[in-house]
Amino acid sequence: YDMQPLKVNAYDAATNSFFGAEFICDDSGSHLRRISDQMLDTNQYISPGWIDMHTHCYDGMGLFGARADDFGWRKGVCMVVDTGTVGDYTLDNFKRYMLPTIETKVKLFINISPIGCLFQGETNILKALDARRTVKTIEENRDLIAGIKVRMAGSIMGPENLQPLAMADFASRRTGVPVMLHVGEAPPTCS
Q: What is the per-residue pLDDT for 176?
Protein backbone atom coordinates (compact mmCIF):
# COMPACT_ATOMS: atom_id res chain seq x y z
CA TYR A 1 0.00 0.00 0.00
CA ASP A 2 1.99 2.97 -1.20
CA MET A 3 0.82 6.47 -0.34
CA GLN A 4 2.01 9.75 -1.68
CA PRO A 5 4.61 11.21 0.75
CA LEU A 6 3.12 13.78 3.08
CA LYS A 7 5.14 16.98 3.52
CA VAL A 8 5.52 17.73 7.24
CA ASN A 9 7.51 19.79 9.70
CA ALA A 10 9.17 17.23 11.97
CA TYR A 11 10.33 18.00 15.49
CA ASP A 12 13.94 17.27 16.45
CA ALA A 13 14.17 17.06 20.26
CA ALA A 14 17.99 17.18 20.19
CA THR A 15 17.97 20.69 18.70
CA ASN A 16 14.50 21.81 19.87
CA SER A 17 13.62 22.76 16.31
CA PHE A 18 11.60 21.63 13.30
CA PHE A 19 12.90 20.52 9.91
CA GLY A 20 11.15 19.80 6.62
CA ALA A 21 10.45 16.15 5.91
CA GLU A 22 8.36 13.69 3.99
CA PHE A 23 6.31 11.19 5.94
CA ILE A 24 6.33 8.05 3.83
CA CYS A 25 4.14 4.96 4.13
CA ASP A 26 4.99 2.00 1.93
CA ASP A 27 5.33 -1.78 2.11
CA SER A 28 8.29 -1.47 4.47
CA GLY A 29 6.27 0.60 6.98
CA SER A 30 6.25 4.29 7.77
CA HIS A 31 9.27 6.58 8.13
CA LEU A 32 10.49 10.13 7.79
CA ARG A 33 12.87 11.40 5.15
CA ARG A 34 14.54 14.74 5.86
CA ILE A 35 14.28 17.03 2.84
CA SER A 36 15.23 20.40 4.34
CA ASP A 37 16.88 21.89 7.40
CA GLN A 38 14.23 24.62 7.27
CA MET A 39 10.53 24.36 8.04
CA LEU A 40 8.24 23.79 5.08
CA ASP A 41 5.20 25.87 4.16
CA THR A 42 2.70 23.38 5.59
CA ASN A 43 0.43 23.12 8.60
CA GLN A 44 1.25 19.43 9.03
CA TYR A 45 3.52 18.67 12.00
CA ILE A 46 4.88 15.46 13.47
CA SER A 47 6.61 14.96 16.80
CA PRO A 48 7.23 12.28 19.41
CA GLY A 49 4.25 11.48 21.61
CA TRP A 50 3.39 14.13 24.17
CA ILE A 51 2.65 13.55 27.86
CA ASP A 52 0.15 15.72 29.72
CA MET A 53 1.45 15.75 33.31
CA HIS A 54 -1.59 17.36 34.96
CA THR A 55 -5.01 15.99 34.12
CA HIS A 56 -8.10 14.74 35.91
CA CYS A 57 -9.46 11.79 33.98
CA TYR A 58 -11.91 10.08 36.32
CA ASP A 59 -14.84 11.00 34.10
CA GLY A 60 -18.00 11.81 36.04
CA MET A 61 -16.34 11.71 39.46
CA GLY A 62 -15.68 14.71 41.62
CA LEU A 63 -14.87 18.27 40.77
CA PHE A 64 -12.57 17.81 37.82
CA GLY A 65 -13.19 14.43 36.14
CA ALA A 66 -13.15 14.46 32.34
CA ARG A 67 -12.80 11.99 29.45
CA ALA A 68 -9.11 11.17 29.05
CA ASP A 69 -9.28 10.43 25.33
CA ASP A 70 -10.78 13.87 24.64
CA PHE A 71 -7.48 15.48 25.69
CA GLY A 72 -5.35 12.36 25.16
CA TRP A 73 -4.70 10.49 21.94
CA ARG A 74 -7.31 12.51 20.03
CA LYS A 75 -5.13 15.60 20.60
CA GLY A 76 -1.77 13.92 19.95
CA VAL A 77 -1.05 13.15 23.60
CA CYS A 78 0.16 9.58 24.10
CA MET A 79 -0.01 9.55 27.93
CA VAL A 80 -2.00 11.45 30.53
CA VAL A 81 -1.25 11.64 34.22
CA ASP A 82 -4.28 11.91 36.48
CA THR A 83 -3.17 14.09 39.38
CA GLY A 84 -5.23 13.42 42.44
CA THR A 85 -8.70 12.62 41.17
CA VAL A 86 -8.25 9.05 42.42
CA GLY A 87 -7.57 8.01 46.04
CA ASP A 88 -7.13 4.72 47.86
CA TYR A 89 -10.89 4.20 48.23
CA THR A 90 -11.72 5.05 44.62
CA LEU A 91 -8.84 3.28 42.87
CA ASP A 92 -10.53 -0.11 42.41
CA ASN A 93 -13.56 1.43 40.71
CA PHE A 94 -11.31 3.58 38.54
CA LYS A 95 -9.44 0.46 37.44
CA ARG A 96 -12.60 -1.59 36.95
CA TYR A 97 -14.88 0.93 35.26
CA MET A 98 -12.75 3.76 33.81
CA LEU A 99 -9.48 2.25 32.61
CA PRO A 100 -11.17 -0.20 30.21
CA THR A 101 -12.87 2.75 28.48
CA ILE A 102 -9.66 4.79 28.02
CA GLU A 103 -7.44 4.23 24.98
CA THR A 104 -4.79 6.78 26.02
CA LYS A 105 -2.06 5.47 28.34
CA VAL A 106 -2.78 6.59 31.93
CA LYS A 107 -0.61 6.98 35.01
CA LEU A 108 -1.79 8.24 38.40
CA PHE A 109 -0.54 10.52 41.11
CA ILE A 110 -2.80 9.08 43.80
CA ASN A 111 -4.35 11.61 46.16
CA ILE A 112 -3.24 11.38 49.79
CA SER A 113 -6.97 11.69 50.53
CA PRO A 114 -8.50 8.22 50.19
CA ILE A 115 -11.53 9.60 48.35
CA GLY A 116 -9.45 11.50 45.82
CA CYS A 117 -10.63 14.92 44.78
CA LEU A 118 -14.38 14.44 44.95
CA PHE A 119 -15.03 17.82 46.56
CA GLN A 120 -13.16 20.94 47.64
CA GLY A 121 -11.41 20.19 50.92
CA GLU A 122 -10.83 16.48 50.47
CA THR A 123 -8.12 16.42 53.15
CA ASN A 124 -10.41 17.97 55.79
CA ILE A 125 -11.30 14.45 56.90
CA LEU A 126 -7.93 13.91 58.54
CA LYS A 127 -9.04 10.81 60.43
CA ALA A 128 -9.60 9.07 57.05
CA LEU A 129 -6.07 9.81 55.78
CA ASP A 130 -3.70 6.90 56.27
CA ALA A 131 -0.18 7.14 54.84
CA ARG A 132 0.52 3.45 55.47
CA ARG A 133 -2.56 2.50 53.44
CA THR A 134 -1.33 4.80 50.67
CA VAL A 135 2.06 3.03 50.76
CA LYS A 136 0.32 -0.35 50.45
CA THR A 137 -1.85 0.91 47.57
CA ILE A 138 1.21 2.21 45.71
CA GLU A 139 3.15 -1.02 46.25
CA GLU A 140 0.23 -3.06 44.90
CA ASN A 141 -0.27 -0.80 41.86
CA ARG A 142 3.22 0.25 40.74
CA ASP A 143 2.24 -0.34 37.12
CA LEU A 144 -0.32 2.45 37.38
CA ILE A 145 0.74 4.79 40.20
CA ALA A 146 3.63 7.14 39.46
CA GLY A 147 3.37 9.49 42.46
CA ILE A 148 1.30 11.09 45.21
CA LYS A 149 -0.80 14.26 44.96
CA VAL A 150 -1.60 16.56 47.86
CA ARG A 151 -3.56 19.80 47.52
CA MET A 152 -2.66 22.59 49.95
CA ALA A 153 -4.37 25.95 49.64
CA GLY A 154 -6.45 28.23 51.81
CA SER A 155 -9.69 27.24 50.08
CA ILE A 156 -8.91 23.54 50.48
CA MET A 157 -7.27 23.22 53.87
CA GLY A 158 -8.91 23.09 57.23
CA PRO A 159 -7.49 22.60 60.72
CA GLU A 160 -5.27 19.74 59.53
CA ASN A 161 -2.72 22.33 58.38
CA LEU A 162 0.41 20.59 56.99
CA GLN A 163 -0.40 17.05 58.17
CA PRO A 164 -1.56 15.82 54.72
CA LEU A 165 1.75 17.00 53.25
CA ALA A 166 3.68 15.19 56.00
CA MET A 167 1.68 12.04 55.25
CA ALA A 168 2.39 12.32 51.53
CA ASP A 169 6.08 12.82 52.30
CA PHE A 170 6.06 9.69 54.50
CA ALA A 171 4.44 7.61 51.73
CA SER A 172 6.82 9.06 49.15
CA ARG A 173 9.91 8.16 51.18
CA ARG A 174 8.63 4.60 51.76
CA THR A 175 7.82 3.98 48.08
CA GLY A 176 10.32 6.16 46.23
CA VAL A 177 7.65 7.93 44.18
CA PRO A 178 7.52 11.74 43.92
CA VAL A 179 4.98 14.08 45.50
CA MET A 180 3.10 16.63 43.40
CA LEU A 181 2.07 19.55 45.58
CA HIS A 182 -0.80 21.82 44.57
CA VAL A 183 -0.30 25.18 46.24
CA GLY A 184 -3.07 27.69 45.65
CA GLU A 185 -3.95 30.90 47.38
CA ALA A 186 -2.86 31.57 50.97
CA PRO A 187 -1.26 28.21 51.73
CA PRO A 188 -1.40 27.03 55.34
CA THR A 189 1.08 28.37 57.82
CA CYS A 190 3.53 26.28 59.76
CA SER A 191 2.16 27.38 63.15
A: 97
> CA-based Rg of the chain, rounded to a whole angstrom?
21
Give the pLDDT confidence score for residue 121 in this predicted structure.
54
What 3 state SS string does the chain have?
CCCCCEEEEEEECCCCEEEEEEEEEECCEEEEEEEECCCCCCCCEECCCEEEEEECCCCCCCCCCCCHHHHCHHHCEEEEEEECCCCCCCHHHHHHHHHHHCCCEEEEEEECCCCCCCCCCHHHCHHHCCHHHHHHHHHHCCCCEEEEEEEECCCCCCCCCCHHHHHHHHHHHHHCCCEEEEECCCCCCCC
pLDDT digits (tens, 9 = 90+) for 74-126: 887 889 999 999 999 999 999 999 999 999 999 999 999 988 887 565 555 66
d(CA 164, CA 176): 18
